[in-house]
Structure prediction request, 449 residues.
Amino acid sequence: MLKILMPTMILIPLAAATKKNTLFPAFLAFSTILATLSLQWLKIPMTLSKHSNPLMSVDQLSSPLLTLSYWLLPVAILASQNHLKHTTQMQKQMFLLCLATLQTFLTIALSSTNLILFFVMFEATLIPTMIIITRWGNQKERLTAGLYFMFYTLISSMPLLIALLFIKHQMNSLNILLITMTSHKPNITLWLACTIAFMVKMPLYGLHLWLPKAHVEAPIAGSMALATILLKLGGYGMMRISPTLFQPQTLHYPFVTLALWGMVMTSLICLRQPDLKSLIAYSSVSHMGLVVTATIIQTPSSLAGATILMVAHGITSSMLFCLANMMYERTGSRMLTTLQGMQTTMPLMATFWLLANLTNMALPPTLNLLGEIMIITATFNWSYPTLILTGSAATITAIYSMHMFSTIHGKAQKDMMIFPPQTREYLVLMLHTIPMLLLMLDPQIIMLT
Prediction:
């Protein structure tokens, strides 16, 4: 664990001290080496944890998310190069410094076994993410988006901190493994305080208003970080802490109903959404509704499906945001109406666009389908009527995904000059496609069993 965490921390002074001409190549090479080293975490035996010290360990739940975060770090740097082309050297260093700091905080959060350490790192990810959104966002509304993101996260996290301190006082320990093995009295308030903070982070429908704003205003690296890992921190936290708490059955019904109803509502919002990035953001809320449902039901198959869906959605939504950024850099607009005729001018890009949309709508044999089927089956076994909501959401998802793809067909506008994609952009898309295809062949690697 430490042999990857320590070099990750070295990325922070590297971003500040590297000279102008070698800044991006050095950072990219270093992060690529770390991404390659992180693949070793996928070889951990299914039932064992790998402890590096008393506060940190990597197991079958955290290893796929850690590997995903490291894999997409160099991809985010590649995708951001055009966005940072006209900025000063100091601004480029600050941007890479924020990415390196965010990666360090994420690594500690996803591998910590101490609940207070997890909480501190869980909240610390807010700082570099908010700096990226508010400093390198595209429009004036980025400050509003940053404020929404900050206040939603901080207000929901106060009950979590109080709950963790109460657990420490009650059990005299904050080690997740020890608390799980210790029996304790049922406490509905404690469960609610811990759960709400993670549901805001995921987010649950009704607590999701910060997400579309943050995604729309964030630069491409911010959108990728939010979509791939920061949303998954909520699901990871629920899956980590829920076994340590008594889960009241009476509260399962309102939360599952809200999550599944939110899937249908956000899918319907996607049907009438003219902004491409906002559409992808709302589709993330819809997919996370399934993860919320799976983590509340807490059956082995639902948790395995939630892990698979989190990884699959992280890769797919990141690829969709990269494609949306490619469109934005060429047209200067995120409106779906401006994308007409893209298929004739960029046919290879249209192929990646089709692939991303097919995985987003969970077409067989994609990894998304496996995760969704496992969760939907577990939910159906838990309660038969849930099939109506999950089936409706899956149908609407297919409709808006095909609508999103169909917008690139048609006649291009006469006054629009589209320059061809660069090799760098195709490399970014390939680095999303390759893990997607490889995980299709062997999903057992990331399956929580």
